[in-house]
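Q: I have two molecules that I believe assemble together. Could you output structure tokens for the complex as a whole instead of separate predictions?
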Amino acid sequence: MSDPLSERLERLKQGLDDLCAGGAEDRALFELRSEIARLSLAVIVSDLEEEDTSYLSATLELDRAIESIEAAKQDTASVTIAIRAAATSVALVEKALEAR
Amino acid sequence: MSYERLLAIVLLVLLGCSASVPEAKFHVLASSGARILSTTGDTYARIVRLEQAFIVASMGDEKLTPDSFRPVVEGRSFDLEPELAFRQAALGVLVKYLRVLEAFASSETDADVDKASLELGASLEGLMETAAISKERGAQVSGILATGVDAIGREVSARQRARALDRVMDASQKDIERLANLVAESHAKLDRAIDVMVGQIVARANVVRPPPATVGRDEFYVALASTLRGAKEAHRALLATAEAVKQIPVAHAQIRQTLAQTRAPLDALKTLAHKAEEAGTFYGSTQKTIGQTP
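A: Yes, here they are, computed for all two components at once.
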């Protein structure tokens, strides 16, 4: 939680209690309550922003994992390439035999 | 023992001890992840609409300007939308990872191996004919050889896939756990945000509601009830998706274990599928109710 923001929020809440105790008019109380609600949301947004770096680091690692799976796909494809190469070699031998 | 019979036995042995990749489990994992992402997207959209209602409900009495409805207080943003978009994108990366795992675990590469083996079989048949081996026997031997190569190719490809899956899943496990925990923490904060916004919307409604026993008041109440119902659903969906996301790393770890074992329990995957389904049942006929705020 962002400290200056939280401190400001606490002061406003104290101010609201004082206004209530002093019998302030409803409109003034509503204005202050609205301000407190907006600040409370700003504190939550600030808390969420603090998580962003951790999110970023975790997703970057997953991005790397996705890349390594893509690379592994290439390795798997090498089996097919090897069999195709064998088929080509056999065909070449066949041609050589025919030419004799 | 004839050459053909020997080859056939070798093939049977190879197929008997083939490396198995649990494709269906990867499919359930990826589908559950996609479902959670979809429900999360709906929930975040509701929160954004609730925020718009909150901005109006928390307006002061000062003179209006073009910037009056900006989500800023004392120079600080209280806009949840960018944070929600960021979290949705992060969850999207997790689901993409699960989809890529699913695609990699599937045996689509086996089709390529089959095709290449058929090519090899045809080439061998031609070679045998050229080498003056009888056509019938040549076709028989080349067919068996091609099937053998196919089985070996599939086996090698399956083992490569299993090894790659082991490696990638081990390396990703911690990040998936971290991401799941982050989502749960974020959802707890968003839950608080919903409480703040709902409290303000109700407080404002008490100030501005139309006079009693009028059509205006009934309409106002209908719209307010709809907003509050939407907020309640978003609240429940946040909890449900957080619970469901927490099951992803558990199921991921369990599937990873099944790569090494032929029979392993599937409790975590079943729980994940169930929770993902639960999280997806919040939104039905009440879609887009938050927008109708008084």
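A: One point stands out. Chain B touches chain A through 70 residues (CB under 8 Å).
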